[in-house]
TrEMBL record:
The lineage of its organism: Bacteria, Pseudomonadati, Pseudomonadota, Alphaproteobacteria, Hyphomicrobiales. It holds the Pfam family BPD_transp_1. This is Sulfate transport system permease protein CysT. It is found in: Cell membrane. Part of the ABC transporter complex CysAWTP (TC 3.A.1.6.1) involved in sulfate/thiosulfate import. Probably responsible for the translocation of the substrate across the membrane. Part of the ABC transporter complex (TC 3.A.1.6.1) involved in sulfate/thiosulfate import. Belongs to the binding-protein-dependent transport system permease family. CysTW subfamily. It comes from Rhizobium soli. GO terms for molecular function: ABC-type sulfate transporter activity.
Amino acid sequence: MTSSTAATSARWRVKQPSIIPGFGLTLGFSLAYLSLIILIPIAGLLWRTAELGWSGFFAILSDQRTIRALTVSFGTAFAAALINVVFGTLLAWVLTRYRFPGRRLIDAMVDLPFALPTAVAGIAFASLYAPNGWIGSLFMPFRIAFTPYGIVIALIFIGLPFVVRTVQPIMEEIDREVEEAAATLGANRFQTIFQVLLPGLAPAILTGFALAFARGVGEYGSVIFIAGNIPYVSEIAPLLIVIRLEEFNYAGATAIATIMLLISFAMLLVINLIQAWSRRRYGYV
């Protein structure tokens, strides 16, 4: 009887006994910090949006300018994240597998978007890719700046470090003997890459994609200078929120922010589910 009682109490215990003290204090601090930084602002956002009612909310959701701004923001962020997955993975592979002069300089330059103010990057891109810029003039009459193509370029710049720094540590842990064993068993280079290396890198690549995508969706500073901010063409959702705030339409601004929040949560949930499936599929837990 005593043993069954002890087993039941152990089953319903909040935490398992640990030699490291401070669980209650650290859990309380974590929940308080999470509430102040994330939960309370989101609750305020939803509460302010609720003032519109369902009819007002769906009126903003169905507005063509809002739909186009959301399409530009999420479409360009998705395209930039996909491009960063390809070239970020290649760059991480080069920095991990090869030794060459200037390698450390290139490795340090990967982190430049973290240190460089986004507005400076936006001004630089707008100057380079404008119709009379050094690069933009080479592609005339095809315009890059002040179009969604310019937005994609800016988002590639600010999202590349997320992919490289997420994939690079995992690549460093892959032993070269794995590649040599695959070659010994008759695998060619493409089979080694796609059947041996990429399955183990898939969770890290998906994580880098999610980080780059989330960063691109909310980007403002580096985009507004090269986007042109033309309604229905190159206007992004964060700029539309700022416009609504300047019009003192706070409920409209929070409604657009709520729509962005819901779409972002849905897309990140799908990415996390794919990532979990990939880990189970290839045995990485």
